[in-house]
Amino acid sequence: MIDVRPIALPHGITLNCRVAGAEGAPVMIFLHGFPEAAFVWDPLLTYFSGRFRCIAPNLRGYEASSAPADVASYRAKHLVQDIHALVKACSGEAPLAALVAHDWGGAVAWGFAAMFPDMLERLVIVNSPHPATFLRELQNNPLQQAASAYMNELAAPGSEARLAADDFAALWQIFTRMGAADPTRPGGGWLTDPVRAQYRAVWQAGLTGPVNYYRASPLRPPTGPDSAVHGVTLPPDAVTIRVPTHVVWGEADTALPPSLLDGLEAFVPRLTVTRIPEATHWIVHEMPGRVIAEIDGALNR
After folding, report:
1. pLDDT tens-place string over residues 231-250
2. On the CB side of 135, how many CA atoms lie within 13 Å of its CA?
3. Which residues, 6 or more positions from 92, have their beta carbon under 8 angstroms from its beta carbon?
4. What confidence tier does 186 reach under pLDDT thresholds 50, 70, 90?
5. Residue whose C-alpha is closest to residue 218's, from 152, 273, 269
6. CB distance 55 to 28 below 8 Å
7. 120 phi and psi, to 5 degrees?
8. Which of 77, 238, 272, 288 has the most CB atoms in a 10 Å sphere around its CB?
9. What is the C-alpha separation between 12 and 54, in angstroms, rounded?
10. What percent of the chain has pLDDT over 70?
């Protein structure tokens, strides 16, 4: 059974969380991406709750979680602070059994794991680039710059109104252009009417918080020589991950191509990678059983 409850954090943010499993069991935390929400992890919470206390927060700005109005509140340091406080609230002094994260949730998880390696036993990343390889590709690779051009569109003023127009037509296209409504492709057809209703409820709660993640980040494709991304440097020690890390990558992801995995071992020395050629960015929806199996494997290493 999955419960929904707000968890108030000491710094004034409340995260509305989906929770399953016995109190006192080792804790797993699951972080979603854009334009998703905590409910995407429900099959995984159900599976792992027999052994773990499973918590999937709606990140700040999403659904019923706190949604500060100012863009600066969505900078990386604040997002990591939320997860640090959530771990303390839910796991106390014990490290997480695993932090599992996808897309923007992965961006937060990479930062958290780099800063607080003693607070988790392992990290599982699903289609979310490490900041160092993402920065390299955004600065130097025209293919990645083109694939990530949507980030500048989402960061633009008024993007939330454009996304909401015509019953969120632009948001549905984010899913359908990778086959979410096509039952003939592997894992396709997951965007059913009930799933649409879940997404519609989340998006109706507001889209300004979700797009503020893009507005607050300098990691966006350059539009000219003065673009912020050109001035970003990441000291290797600050982004090195010192916990066992398993990366699951759907290689049919048109926004995050597999080249983002190149050189990853330089920043993640305890790395294992599973590549799934037929999976897209939406692998958690497409192949929940496969993602569960990959996490199980990571837990047993």
Report:
1. 999 999 999 999 999 999 99
2. 17
3. none
4. confident
5. 152
6. yes
7. -150, 145
8. 288
9. 23
10. 100
